[in-house]
Amino acid sequence: MESDSEMVPFPLLKTPIESNYRPCTIPYRFPSDNPRKATPTEIAWMDTYLNSIPSFKNNAASGTTVADASAKAEKFAQRYAELLDDIKKDPESHGGPPDCILLCRLREQVLRELGFRDAFKKVKDVENAKAISLFPDVVRLNDNIEDGEKRLENLVRGIFAGNLFNLGSAELAKVFSRDGMPFLASCQNLVPRPWVIDDLDTFIAKSSRKSWKKATVIFVDNSGADVILGILPFARELLKRGTQVVLAANDLPSINDITYRELVEILSKLKDESGMLVGVDTKKLLIANSGNDLPVIDLTRVSQELAYLASDADLVILEGNGRGIETNLYSEFKCDSVKIGTVKHPEVAQFLGGRLYDCVFKYNEV
């Protein structure tokens, strides 16, 4: 399904009156703060976005779809830095006061105005190809774990490992450019438990008596190892248990996040001629266009197609630093929910009282 209609609230989100829904997790300012003066938190976060500019500029400059890419990438870096400087001087300029949604949206607007509709396409294509080649082996390793609870824990650890492939983080962009992002090594090198938010044991215990067989909606995050080696093996396990799985992916490209169209293409490469995913029927696996175009998400605005497919789900999973931690960590739903991801920014680690690259697994049962 492609999203070409009016946006609507996600139907399983508690109404704003019931839950006081605020998509952004970290408050950059409070009502008592001077509206004309940037707060220390706003300044720290704008510096974080400033530090990410070189990664965006380099990826945009290396693309082949935009004429004069190098010069336009330099123009992007200058324009976005100027916008951040403007907001530091006047938080209400450019649609402020700032939060992570506004800062991401301004960055995407500058990129798209200069013709960079998919600045990270080159690296996404390379990482998708690598992950597709590894998918059968990763699935077999999981299938060889006979104990269902241990297998589920291993699948969750795979989601954490895959989620480290994120080029919106200045620190991870440097690591990736230097070392790549070997998936199996990342599985072994996760920060030790207990994680900063660690409800995994509760979730696993509940999963043995709660089937969530109506439907599970998973808001997916990054291309490459994240969606292919982390999310898809987990989704395949749910399919084996009889659950319908709806994978909700972005409408438009943003950083190295997977898009709806890319995910449809990836699945076509992973399925065999009978539509099986390494021996598992995929009739109950649906791909939905979320309608989103950012690495973060405001759940009061999703596509009507996703709203329809998700209407009777009994489990919602928001995966990734952007969708499940920096936005929606404390969002409330009418059904069970999981927020899962790795912490990509020092500011988030400090806010949560954890470590950089720490893991978040927040389970809420209704």
Automatic annotation (TrEMBL):
InterPro entries hit by this protein: ARMT-1-like_metal-bd_sf (IPR036075), ARMT1-like_metal-bd (IPR002791), At2g17340 (IPR016949), At2g17340_3_helix_bundle (IPR035073), Type_II_PanK (IPR004567)
| Gene3D superfamilies reported in the protein's UniProt record | AF1104-like (1.20.1700.10), Uncharacterised protein PF01937, DUF89, domain 3 (3.40.50.10880)
Specify the superkingdom: Eukaryota
Cofactor(s) recorded for this entry are: Ni(2+); Mn(2+)
**What are the record's GO terms for cellular component?**
cytosol; nucleus
Q: Which SUPFAM superfamilies match?
A: AF1104-like (SSF111321)
Q: Does the keyword Transcription regulation apply?
A: no
Per the database record, which ranges form the Damage-control phosphatase ARMT1-like metal-binding domain?
52-360
GO molecular function annotations of the record: ATP binding; hydrolase activity; metal ion binding; pantothenate kinase activity
Q: Which UniProt keywords apply?
A: Hydrolase, Manganese, Metal-binding, Nickel
Q: Name one GO biological process term.
A: coenzyme A biosynthetic process
What is this protein identified as?
Damage-control phosphatase ARMT1-like metal-binding domain-containing protein
The organism is Hibiscus syriacus (Rose of Sharon)
